[in-house]
């Protein structure tokens, strides 16, 4: 029958375009994370991917850099808007990998974890599995981010004797204008 055939055709097309849409979403996030500039650039992608994947968001977060023990990636102070990221650890990842892409991947993974805590996900196991879900959905199964989420971001500096490294403690620093208001609205 003509009508049934027509319907079937539509269904196939709908399925195809959905796959294509997913594919282009993954491609565009991969490109964005590779090219992201600094903490602000990565933070924007953290917020976008969590919103797209889980439908959750929170405004007004503040990001600080501090030199923390190297087994600690970052922490979120409960009841505040603050995320404190381990500057020394990021520096080590930068020195070891010499790759902006990998540093961005590392920072993304750590910040997404803390952001999910800030969104009210308290359980460590839940947060880990959510970071994996968001990473896989937005960057694809075979992307480094999804691997970091599945294993640990520390796999990028595997073999580096972190216990032997003493890091100079410097002042805590606020990343200014983390969430810039949209410039287009300013006349
Ligand atoms: Zn945690």
Offer a concise description of the structure.
Helices cover 56% and strands 8% of the residues. With 187 residues, it is of the alpha+beta class.
Describe this protein's structure.
- By secondary structure, the protein is an alpha+beta fold.
- It has a domain at 12-57 and 87-158.
- It is built from 6 helices and 4 strands, in the order ααβββααααβ.
- It has a 4-stranded mixed sheet.
- α3 (87-97) runs antiparallel to α4 (100-118), α4 packs across α5 and α5 (124-139) runs antiparallel to α6.
- It is globular.
- The N and C termini lie far apart (59 Å).
- The model is unreliable at 1-11 (pLDDT under 50).
- The chain binds zinc ion (ZN).
Mind sketching the topology for me?
Layout: H1 2-35, H2 38-54, E1 62-66, E2 74-76, E3 82-86, H3 87-97, H4 100-118, H5 124-139, H6 144-150, E4 173-174
Parallel strand pairs: 1-3
Antiparallel strand pairs: 1-4, 2-3
Helix pairs in contact: 2-4, 2-5, 3-4, 4-5, 4-6, 5-6
Bound molecules: zinc ion (ZN).
Oligomer: single chain
Beta-strand percent range: 5-15%
**Strand pairing plus helix content: what structural class?**
alpha+beta
The neighbouring-strand order within the major sheet is: 2-3-1-4
- Which ranges are low-confidence, i.e. pLDDT below 50, for 5 or more consecutive residues? 1-11
Ligand set: zinc ion
Tally of extended strands?
A: 4
Task: Sketch the topology as an H/E string, one letter per element.
Answer: HHEEEHHHHE
Annotation field: number of helices: 6
**Helix share bin:** 55-70%
Largest sheet, strands/sense/barrel: 4 strands, mixed
Terminal-residue CA separation: 59 Å
Q: What Rg is obtained from the alpha carbons, in whole angstroms?
A: 19 Å
Shape: globular
Return the average pLDDT rounded to an integer: 89
